[in-house]
Amino acid sequence: MNYIDSFQCYLQEEGKRNRTIEEYVAAVLALEKWVFERTGENFNPDFLTSRDLHEWVSFMQTVEKLAPATINKRVAAIKVYWSYLIQAGYSILNPTIKVKRKRISPLAQAPRWLSRLEQDKFLHQIHKEKNAWKKSRNLAIVQIMLQAGLRISEVVSLDIEDIDLKRRIISVSKAFYSDYETRNTLSYKKLLKFYRTHRLFSSLLKTLFLPKFSRCQSTVTNYSSIGRARKLRNNT
């Protein structure tokens, strides 16, 4: 029998996000497809064993060559599916108990970053925006992501109170990465230093620190003037 529809309803009642529901259903359908191609019979949860599931995991590794993280997501989804089947009375045994998730090394979990060329291309596209306000906004968003390594969801979740002008930092609290909790802070001084060096943060500084931007620019100018004066004095 096909329990996909009722499984979807169950996940909705559990408050799962639509994206999560889609991933869980896709995992179950992938397993059903593998069973049919392997046996020529329709999927029946009562006839599936732990050995079958281990072979499916091996198939995903060696034939489909899926990433360990993807395999783990599918295994997690199948475990939830069987928990539902047992809870609903559609199955008695749970073959997923002995199926373990693959251990992923920290190196494999490390996020991929954009190369300097990719960053330049990205910023170049933003500078094409003719609307000055939109361009400043987009630069602020993108530079925060590039310089602080924030995710899209973390940037979207930023509130006014997260920008501390007195301490000159932007805080992102309770940002979860895999199995640990971290706290990212974007230093205002680092922004200013980057601005002095590369002149890419003008719009970002104006957008995030507008009240203090004029003072910062004058400070940079004063520093430059002092530096030139010292150089001239030393030469003489």
From TrEMBL:
Subcellular location: Cytoplasm
Keyword NAD: no
Gene Ontology biological process terms in this record: cell division; chromosome segregation; DNA integration; DNA recombination
MF term (GO), any: DNA binding
Chief place where the protein resides: cytoplasm
Core-binding (CB) domain mapped to chain residues: 1-86
Alphabetical list of Pfam families matching this protein: Phage_int_SAM_4, Phage_integrase
Keywords from the named record: Cell cycle, Cell division, Chromosome partition, Cytoplasm, DNA integration, DNA recombination, DNA-binding
SUPFAM superfamilies attached to this UniProt entry: DNA breaking-rejoining enzymes
Coiled-coil blocks: none
Domain Tyr recombinase as annotated: residue spans: 109-236
A Gene Ontology cellular-component term: cytoplasm
Name by which UniProt lists this protein: Integrase
